[in-house]
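Why this split exists: single-chain examples teach little about how molecules sit against one another. For that reason, every record in the complexes split bundles all components of an assembly together and asks for one structure covering all of them. Below is a record exactly as it appears in the raw files.
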Amino acid sequence: MQLDVGIAFFLLGVIATLVRADIKFPKGLYQSLTLFLMIAIGLKGGVALAEHASWNLISQSIYVILLGLLLPLIAFPVLYFIGEFKRYDAASIAAHYGSVSVGTYAVAVGFLEAQNIAYEAYIPLFVVLLEMPAIAIGIALARMKKTTKDSSENSQQTNDKYKLLHEVFFNQGMVLMVGGLLIGLVAGDRIERVTPFFFDLFNGILALFLLEMGMMAARRLDDIKRLGSFMLAFGVGMPMVGGLLGCFLGLAIGLSPGGAILLAVLGASASYIAVPAAMRVALPQANHSLSISSSLGITFPFNVLIGIPTFAVITQWITG
Amino acid sequence: MTSKQFHFSVSTGILLTLLGAVIVSKAPIGIGLIGLGIAILMLSILTKNNKHQNAQMPSLPIPIEQTQQSNRPHSTKRVR
């Protein structure tokens, strides 16, 4: 049995933190790795879009957006009625689980390439599309019951709305991935000038990113203990539901098994970069450590270690 | 933990264990699912009598830069 290199680096990060090895990434390196992955994924998607753009892609995109709207609507009642979280907290966590994690997507791409499983290279377009709907649904769910407001509250909310719209449409992930997509789309053959950096180094950079993520997840172990068994069950159960929905949807809209696995991973992943920033603006009352701890401490490690291979097995099982 | 939370956790644990048992015949990753399912079941049973966990949630983590700043020793010199 061979262990995936990315997973091995993730485990190394976890072990290094547990044995208190003094590994410190230079300040800003994690941010740089994230930026690199976002641009590289965007560029790859743009190149693929230029080669495979078709009308079919529009209908596929609509279904993907519907998936993004559905996921927080599944998560919210579980958190609000069963978990008995406050409305703001439940809505914020639901938004995180409805959105996507670029890091998890990058790991899934690395996994498919290591297993030689073909996939539609334009899936980064779906990553971009899945970022936004969950944020909108999360905010709507949180503010559903609020009916009375005075004028000062109104002006404050208008101010917040602009901040929020800016955060939703111009967050770093959105700008870099959409920018990468567009550059990849229009660059043509000239993209070869940057492929040695953005394409050939992708797996090495991903390994470094996973090392840091492993350390980060291990540092959150205490938070997980405090979150308790309900959040552990939710942090694992929700990705399974989202992943299965993504897998079925992927196959239903005509994606290849590899594409369906990637859509499953997108459905299973929980955001920890774009949505936290948007939620801090939109729902400052919510306890943001809850959503970050569960998405980063439970769901990300679950997807990397168990979720991605499980969705691959299930998808290949269904497609025979 | 409330009874609804307990039932949710136990059901999730059982479902994961069953899914793992089905998958293990196809791929060894099923063992991971079984382990996780059993872990959730055990944790649910062990923490059944705890009060609602929402009240004990950790506060926002302090960014590293702030922690480093707050750990700096304060100057004890007084300006005369």
